[in-house]
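Folding follows sequence. Below is one example:
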Amino acid sequence: MAFLLWFRLIPTLPHSAQECATGAARIEPHAMTAPSPPPETAPEAGDLPANVPFDEFRTGLPRGRFRVIVNPERARKYVRHRLLVFPVSSLLLGAGTALAMFGWLWFGIPLMAAGFLLHRVVKAQAPQILLHLASHHGSSYREAIDHEILEVRRAH
């Protein structure tokens, strides 16, 4: 009962009419548009993202025909999801902790270290792992392009 009284004493912040109607904050239209380049500087052909089929990407990447731009933050999330890093590291940490608690320290501590380091290594190497996945698996390549994690441009 005391919690309900305390909760009613908290002052409410004023909301705009749109925020109350939609339940979300309003986004200004000018904040969503990027400034356009001056008309006299047209982008070159190599500066535009290319729609490259997977087979051409797989054969042309080692030869240097494409420049690849990877969004590192999105790559981390995608690689962690694709490789099931959280479940695997949780299992390693849990098994290592159980072994260490039951006296098997020489087996438990390395498993706990592997579970801890797996998450860190994948986080640090996510762009390279994504590039490897995209160059070997067509589904990973298409998902990375569709979700704007990977951008392929033709080299000059």
Q: What stands out?
A: Residues 96 and 110 are 7 Å apart (CA to CA).
